[in-house]
């Protein structure tokens, strides 16, 4: 677990170093009229760092009764994540496309934890998107599940990480040397939240990237309501 703590400390240190660098650049930005742009970067970096710290705090509270399961509208959660991350993708000159092909609208989940899972998947993909290869957020029906999948076009996912995801995810924060910019801490957070929701995690390796996904059981609440009305 010591290695995991070191990875987490390194990942949390990185945005602090970037914030310091950006803050030191403010006087020069003032002279060249780009202070507003730099300030927006500072806000965005700090918000991402704060979200990661908040997610780690949630892990310590998973055993409490704060994160109950209920029917959740999957598309609405996805769209909320996209709205929050769009400025980051725009700032980095990247794109995130969305495709909804699910007929089932409600899944059994916890909205806050699901939000964090989708956010971490998309934040990882942010580093591997461009005009011709935008990251892709897809929502699909899979038998009795709704699958939320995020596709990127980065370097190959290391076999060790792929195998861990095929068996439930990361047991501790892990450095991913072959994929600079990817957050092993973020994938660890995803694992903890998915386990709490009893959701299935997985990863698909492509020739030109990786898809991470989570499968959530479909809620039949909507169909029950429809039958009652009949």
Question: Which tags fit this structure?
Answer:
230 residues, alpha+beta, two-stranded antiparallel ribbon, 20% strand, globular
Give structural notes.
- The structure is a single chain.
- This protein has about 230 residues and is an alpha+beta fold.
- The protein is about 50% helix and about 20% strand.
- The chain is built from 8 helices and 7 strands, in the order H-H-H-E-H-E-E-H-E-E-H-H-E-E-H.
- A 5-stranded mixed beta sheet has the order 2-4-5-7-6. It has a two-stranded antiparallel ribbon with strand order 1-3.
- Strand 4 and strand 5 form a beta hairpin.
- The C terminus is likely disordered.
How are the SSEs placed, and which strands pair?
Elements: H1 2-24, H2 26-31, H3 35-59, E1 70-73, H4 74-91, E2 96-100, E3 106-109, H5 111-125, E4 135-142, E5 145-152, H6 159-166, H7 184-197, E6 200-206, E7 209-217, H8 221-229
Parallel strand pairs: 2-4
Antiparallel strand pairs: 1-3, 4-5, 5-7, 6-7
Helix pairs in contact: 1-3, 3-7, 4-5, 5-7
Outline of this structure?
The chain is an alpha+beta fold and 230 residues long.
Mean pLDDT over all positions: 82
Overall form: globular
Low-confidence stretches: 223-230
Main β-sheet: number of strands, strand sense, barrel status?
5 strands, mixed
Per DSSP, the total helix count is 8
- Estimate the helix proportion, in percent: 40-55%
Span of the ends, CA to CA: 55 Å
Q: Strand order, biggest sheet?
A: 2-4-5-7-6
Let me know the number of strands.
Answer: 7
Estimated structural class:
alpha+beta
Instruction: Name the helix and strand elements from N-terminus to C-terminus, one letter apiece.
Output: HHHEHEEHEEHHEEH
- The amount of beta strand, in percent, is 15-25%
Round the Cα radius of gyration to an integer and report it.
Answer: 19 Å
């Amino acid at each position: 677990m010591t290695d995991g703590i070191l990875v987490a400390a390194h990942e949390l240190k990185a945005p602090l170093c970037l914030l310091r660098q950006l803050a030191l650049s403010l006087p020069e930005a003032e002279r060249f009229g780009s202070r507003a742009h730099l300030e927006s970067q500072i806000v965005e970096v700090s918000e991402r760092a704060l979200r990661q710290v908040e997610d780690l705090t949630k892990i310590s509270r998973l055993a409490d009764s704060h994160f109950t399961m209920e029917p959740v509208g999957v598309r609405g959660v996805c769209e909320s994540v996209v709205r929050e991350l769009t400025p980051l993708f725009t700032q980095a000159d990247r794109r995130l496309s969305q495709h909804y092909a699910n007929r089932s609208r409600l899944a059994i989940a916890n909205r806050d934890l699901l939000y964090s899972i989708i956010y971490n998947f998309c934040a990882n993909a942010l580093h591997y998107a461009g005009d011709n290869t935008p990251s892709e957020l897809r929502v699909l029906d899979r038998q009795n599940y709704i699958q939320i999948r995020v596709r990127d076009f980065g370097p190959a996912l290391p076999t060790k990480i792929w195998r861990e995801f095929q068996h439930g995810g990361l047991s501790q924060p892990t450095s991913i040397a072959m994929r600079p910019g990817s957050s092993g801490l973020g994938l660890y957070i995803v694992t903890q939240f998915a386990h709490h929701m009893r959701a299935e995690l997985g990863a698909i390796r492509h020739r030109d990237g990786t898809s991470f996904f989570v499968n959530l059981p479909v809620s039949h609440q909507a169909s029950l309501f429809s039958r009652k009305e009949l």
